[in-house]
Design goal:
Blueprint lengths: L4 H22 L12 E2 L2 E2 H22 L26 H9 L1
Antiparallel strand pairs: 1-2
Length: about 100
């Protein structure tokens, strides 16, 4: 997700707006109380629509987070070895610790 700052902000806002619309569409208030039950994907139609909306929300939320630039708070330094790197050699995690022990 490379791009200019304004394009990323615009993409994030579009995704968040679409998420809001999907949440509104997931509520089955558009159905008539006496409407016959139809099955989609083996589920009642209103349940299938709600689930598809929630999947869309998850995808758009991921895109919105990818378009969000997260910076370190002022006063912190960025270390190339990263947090959790006790040895300072750039290796991390349980596998790296186990491999160093051999």
């Amino acid at each position: 997700m490379r791009g200019s700052g304004t394009a990323r902000v615009r993409l994030r806002r579009v995704c968040l707006g679409a998420i809001a619309l999907l949440y509104v569409a997931s509520v089955p208030w558009y159905r008539d109380p006496g409407a016959p039950l139809r099955l989609w994907l083996g589920l009642p139609d209103w349940v299938a629509i709600a689930l598809l909306c929630y999947v869309g929300v998850a995808v758009l939320n991921g895109v919105a987070w990818l378009a969000t630039e997260v910076t370190d708070p002022p006063g912190t330094t960025s270390d190339a070895s990263g947090p959790g790197d006790a040895q300072g050699d750039g290796t991390r995690g349980a596998l790296a610790v186990r491999e160093r022990g051999r």
